[in-house]
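The following record pairs a protein chain with its ligand, DQA.
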Amino acid sequence: MKKILVINGPNLNLLGTREPDKYGDDTLENIKTMLQEKAQKLDTELEFFQSNSEGELIDKIQSAKNQFDGILINPAAYTHTSVAIRDALSAVNIPTVEIHLSNIHAREEFRHKSYTAAVCIGQICGFGKYSYIYGLTALVTHFNQ
Ligand code: DQA
């Protein structure tokens, strides 16, 4: 069974109450439950990790080497700032899909640039909580190709 690490970056622990017009009113716990159901159908195993700290996110990515077959990551604001997270993803070289709840390309200009997307298989954004489902499906499709 394929093992996938699901990483959520800063402020995503506040989902449900944080700017629901942009991010929906589901909590991260709700999203996890929904994703877990999908993972069972796709015969994959998930581990979840959320941190508000760049260093902790990097440590987790580094520790994923030889432990996980894939990474699904919403780096949140670090998407637009973190060369260090990009380098960590590049270093472990695990197939990764970047996801965002909102369509970052339709928002402020500083959100249009992703440092991390270039070291991912691809990026999915704009589908709210379903971005997580589509991201997981994309990773599994990638494994089966
Ligand atoms: C986000 C988009 C980012 O620009 C923002 O900083 C977030 C959430 C999203 O899922 O839409 O924290 O990654």
